[in-house]
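Record type: monomer structure entry
Structure origin: computed from sequence
Chain ID: A
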Amino acid sequence: MPIPFRAVHDVDTLPPAGFLRLLRPGEGTLVGAIFQVTPRGEPVEFTLCHVTSPGPAFWRDGDLASQATRVLLEGLLRAAPQVPGVLLVLPEEFHPDLFQAEVQPSVPVGAVVPAPDSGWQCDWVSERPAIASPALRVVAELASRGILREPFERALKGLLASVAEGTPPA
């Protein structure tokens, strides 16, 4: 007979967080990933995608890079087998305007930036989720564990390993 117990935290009922990363391994190539983790930081899935851009001869400065990033983001969102509760980005990789003017995911999007006091915080790129929402609770749980930024590093390691192995992403 099992021993009755009460779980102290309900983090197991929360959806995963998706961490978006991108890498430019060579001229005209863009590789990206959504690395999903539980609120405890445990890996759930790794979705990979790549885009090869045409030559820059006919593009205005900056247009080719933004178009390739948009196409890559759309590909990642289509390829992800599981919907995360929140998407987190680094603003130096995914400009916040991309999520307002070009691609609007059905889940909240936040940019992980340095906090004024130290550590990291989430600045909402999309509309800020409600106080008790799963998205806000996931971000708060990751922050309380000191791992709001750390999954980005694991996502980058996964991207670098897939490029080194020559794994053809979707």
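Annotation 1: The chain has a mean pLDDT of 87.
Annotation 2: The helical segments are 63-79, 96-102, 134-144, 150-165.
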